[in-house]
Amino acid sequence: MSTAKLILAINAGSSSVKLSLYSSTPPDSERKTGNAPCLILQSSVSNLTSPPAVFSYTHTENSSTSSNVKSKELPDVKSQDDAFKHFLEYLSKDSDLKQVNSGEDITFACHRIVHGGDYERPVVINEKSLNYLKELTDLAPLHNSPALSLVQTTLKQLPKTTNIAYFDTSFHTLSMPEHIKTYPVNLEHARRNKIRKYGFHGISYSFIVTEVAEYLKKSVEETSIIALHLGSGASACAIRNGKSLDNSMGLTPLEGLPGATRSGTVDPSLVFHYTSNAGRISHSGTEDMQISKAEEILNKKSGWSSIIGTTDFSKLKSDSPPPHSELVFDLFVDRIHNYIGAYFVKLRGKVDALVFAGGIGEKSFELREAVVDGVQCLGFSLNKRANENIEKENGIVLNIGEESARAPKVLICSTDEQFEMARECARDKEFWSKL
């Protein structure tokens, strides 16, 4: 079993599907870290909720191949399932891709599943695990439902491939203390209904702490950071000695920081004052995904888009910003400060770095500047020139803080959930032993 195998990492979002294909040899029995997967190609289908869908496809080793597509509209693609089928069809016709003759050449398909319940590690998707994940849909109806639909499509389209589920919750499940996991409600009722804090964006945070530790020339077990995954979905995480101590998200991804369409943490009674129909079933649900009016409002009709009319955060600092842009910007910065302050205390001030990641965290120098400006009292400081010129630098982790031996660093990490799934798969001897 020495020949390289193909690993397909699948990241299904609410309006997109990201796909990355890797090559990897089996884990070396004498090495604890396993083999790093080699990226072969990247593809995505976006705009699924605002058609036409847009398809991209790029060979990473050679960007000039004839099969590459920078941007192509797909008017007939309406869902994640359609997107995946289009990708497989295009893949099978790619004459420039020597490693693949058909989808059957893919050994592992790694799926990002947002809610994993009590699963502490990735699992092979079979009838038992799939049924358990379906039961969790009520805890994350807007997230697990489309992902599981794509899982079922993959099982049909790639019947010889080993499908593996990787969970946003697993990074937090083992290490988050019981008193942090627990909500102050009746314990028996909470346990019976799986009501507790789970935490999310764990695949991203696993990647971040691994890369930051390497950058700092420390072991993961010696690395403590406050990490901010800031995008349309946003969260903060306190990581102590390489493990999750706390995460701003909770029972569902709704708790914590506001997002593009999510309210984040609000007074629980707010929704009942907002609408008299909070408990009714929303018409925006589907046969496989029933959601209440309250869930629809707080998950899909809140966040900064409800105030400025767009999900595009970059518009806030554009030449023609929408009305109330300053309000939204200051609101977001304020909520981020709430978590940095709390997590700095929880980590007892032993923080190696404040790390920005995610689409907004990596792209908005104005946001980074405002956030760091507000936490200078904790020892964080920003190098303004470095912060505004990161596009000129190369590397997964970049330092944008002032150089100081005493101060914690301020870093940017280009997070990569697909690579993290492939890396974990490449290391996992259990999965490879079943081939």
TrEMBL record:
Molecular function in Gene Ontology? acetate kinase activity; ATP binding; magnesium ion binding
Which residues act catalytically here?
168
Write out the pathway annotation from the protein's UniProt entry.
Metabolic intermediate biosynthesis; acetyl-CoA biosynthesis; acetyl-CoA from acetate: step 1/2
Per the record, what are the reactions this protein catalyses? Answer: acetate + ATP = acetyl phosphate + ADP
Under SUPFAM superfamilies, the record lists:
Actin-like ATPase domain (SSF53067)
In this chain, Mg(2+) is annotated as bound at 11, 417
Pfam families the record matches:
Acetate_kinase (PF00871)
Residues annotated to bind ATP:
18, 229-233
Q: List the cofactors.
A: Mg(2+)
**Can you cite a GO biological process for this protein?**
acetate metabolic process
- Give the enzyme's EC designation: 2.7.2.1
Which protein family is named in the record?
Belongs to the acetokinase family.
- List the protein's name: Probable acetate kinase
